[in-house]
Design a protein that fits this description.
- The structure holds 2 protein chains of 2 kinds.
- By secondary structure, chain A is mostly helical.
- Chain A is about 75% helix and about 0% strand.
- Chain A has 2 domains: about 35-140, no CATH class; about 145-225.
- Chain A is extended, with a radius of gyration of 27 Å.
- By secondary structure, chain B is an alpha/beta fold.
- Chain B folds into 2 domains: about 5-25 and about 255-280; about 35-245, Rossmann fold, CATH 3.40.50.
- Chain B is built from 12 helices and 6 strands.
- A 6-stranded parallel beta sheet of chain B has the order 3-2-1-4-5-6, with helices on both faces.
- In chain B, helix 2 (about 10-25) runs antiparallel to helix 12, helix 4 (about 65-80) crosses helix 5 and helix 4 packs parallel to helix 11.
- The radius of gyration of chain B is 22 Å and the shape is elongated.
- The chains are: A mainly alpha, B alpha/beta.
- Chains A and B meet through helix 2, helix 4, helix 5, helix 6 and helix 8 of A and helix 2, helix 5, strand 3, helix 6 and helix 10 of B.
């Protein structure tokens, strides 16, 4: 701990620290300990509901901020103002279309919004979502294949014993995962399964346990003392 | 451009990759794929579920991973509809409800009635809902995605709590996803959990499969093709090509083999250069 962190906490910080510790400890207690006849879980669930409310409010702040930044870009005709305009129109139109006619609709049974409006918006929403959004996102994700191919060719080199083992394991899993490999030699599938079941599982368990212990240590540290602005 | 620069030009790799992916897809060639143990485990578990069991299906991915996970979801959900099972659809990702509708449009629903045999509950906004619905679905989902009060749905009247499910299967592209079901549904309630995963995440899920916490895992689009062949063998009315995965297997093979060849070529070139440098010293 640095000398700065050793500074005395203010009264407000102590109150906040007590709240953080109490809520954090309460939630951990409810997870690990069950007290018969006491509805602790429902209280913990209620805490999660408050968390959702806070996150929703944060989301709203994000939308307001995004709108302000891009509206200013458009208003002041900044160099990228056309993109800002496209962003604002896309965001608000998709939001309105989703609220009116989609699986996220606020009024799916047309109790308030007239059926004719729903009939107009639903095909538009379907086109925007399934034909535009899905296609664009899938395309961007698929582009990863090209970068992986190029990166594998350049970087996946047997520079040392460790990298050679990694390289051999990677190649064998990749070959075993290619459906045609079974026609060449059925054993490729068994080799892949063995690598995934034993060396991979051992490594992943080590990572998982290490990460869990790290999170535990970090959480305890945060519950005991939050470094308020220091 | 000299020979060395051409060899290291990524555009050459990109062109080759496009060719080995596009040509097999255009040829509509289908390659039979033998089932791996994790895929077979999911199929067998569903096939052996008692009649009228409840299955919760969670589509926990976004539009970017549709090519890899939608075929899995399509073929597994088709299997669920072929059997006399009740299915509740939820989603931990906001795109899930829309992608659920797309899957339901793609499959043969085998005269199953909405509300009685299946229902779409929609988005699970937080962990409280995920935990709470195990005890009481109506409180956390007062209406389904179609606006029907869930208390009026026969499937909810029959199964008012998700803890009565015989299986939860999540198609997962990240967090929130499998881990929450393992933490709150499997470890606390001992509910069987299965997963359909993108290839990149599957190695991280293998410890849970090997420990028996996950009954089976579908790994990447290949598992969808494996599942399709198993399902077709049992239920001939399910056509090969329903999920689109079977026809992608040739291009997956050729693209994997191209990358393997590129890695080998890259390493041979690296070793030759290293030897030359060592000899020059």
């Amino acid at each position: 701990m640095t000398s700065k962190e050793k500074q005395k906490m203010t009264k407000a910080e102590i109150i906040l620290q007590v709240i953080i510790f109490s809520l954090g400890f309460f939630y951990a207690f409810v997870y690990y300990v069950r007290v018969p006849g006491v509805a602790l879980q429902s209280a913990a669930d209620q805490l999660f509901t408050y968390l959702t409310s806070i996150l929703t409010a944060a989301f709203a702040i994000g939308i307001i901020n995004l709108t302000r930044v891009h509206a200013n870009n458009v208003k002041n005709r900044r160099p990228i103002w056309k993109y800002s305009l496209i962003l604002l129109v896309s965001m608000y139109f998709m939001a309105v279309a989703s609220v009116i006619a989609s699986p996220f609709s606020l009024d799916p049974q047309s109790s308030v919004i007239p059926g004719a409006v729903y009939a107009v918006f639903f095909p538009i929403w379907q086109f925007l979502y399934y034909d535009i959004l899905v296609s664009i996102n899938a395309t961007l994700f698929s582009l990863l294949a090209f970068f992986i191919a190029s990166a594998a060719y350049r970087a996946f080199k047997a520079r040392s014993l460790e990298t050679s083992i990694l390289l051999a394991a990677g190649l064998l899993v990749m070959i075993g995962q290619a459906p045609i490999s079974n026609s060449v030699w059925p054993g490729f599938g068994d080799v892949r399964d063995w690598i995934m079941a034993f060396p991979n599982t051992a490594g992943q368990r080590g990572i998982l346990i290490g990460t869990a212990l790290g999170i535990l240590a970090f959480s305890v540290r945060r519950l005991i003392r939050y470094p308020w602005g220091r | 451009m000299n020979k060395k620069a051409l060899a290291s030009d990524p555009r050459l790799i990109y062109v080759l990759l496009v060719l080995v992916i596009v040509v097999p897809i255009l040829s509509h060639a289908v390659l039979p794929v033998p089932a791996t143990a994790p895929t077979r485990a999911v199929y067998d578990f569903i096939e052996n579920l008692p009649l009228n069991s409840l299955v919760v299906v969670s589509l926990d991915y976004s539009t970017s991973t549709v090519p890899e996970l939608q075929p899995q979801a399509t073929i597994v959900i088709q299997h669920l509809f072929l059997r006399a099972l009740k299915v509740l659809f939820v989603a931990q990702w906001t795109d899930g409800p829309a992608l659920t509708d797309a899957v339901l449009d793609a499959i043969d629903k085998e005269n199953k009635a909405y509300g009685t045999d299946y229902a779409t509950l929609g988005y699970i906004p937080n962990t409280a809902t995920l935990i709470g619905m195990t005890a009481d679905i109506q409180s956390f989902f007062p209406v389904d995605t179609r606006g029907n009060p869930t208390k009026n749905l026969p499937i909810i009247q029959e199964f008012p709590a998700a803890r009565e499910a015989a299986l939860v299967i999540t198609f997962v592209a990240g967090e929130p996803g499998l881990s929450l079901y393992l933490q709150y549904w499997q470890s606390r309630l001992n509910m069987p959990v299965a997963a359909g995963s993108v290839a990149a995440l599957a190695p991280g899920y293998m410890p849970f499969y090997n420990s028996g916490q996950v009954v089976g895992i579908l790994i990447s689009i290949r598992a969808a093709a494996e599942y399709e062949f198993i399902e077709h063998a049992q239920y001939s009315q399910v056509p090969i090509g329903l999920s689109g995965a079977a026809s992608a297997m040739v291009s997956q093979s050729t693209s994997h083999l191209l990358i393997v060849v590129m890695i080998i070529v890259g390493n041979v070139a690296y070793l030759v250069n290293r030897r030359k440098k060592e000899a020059a010293k």
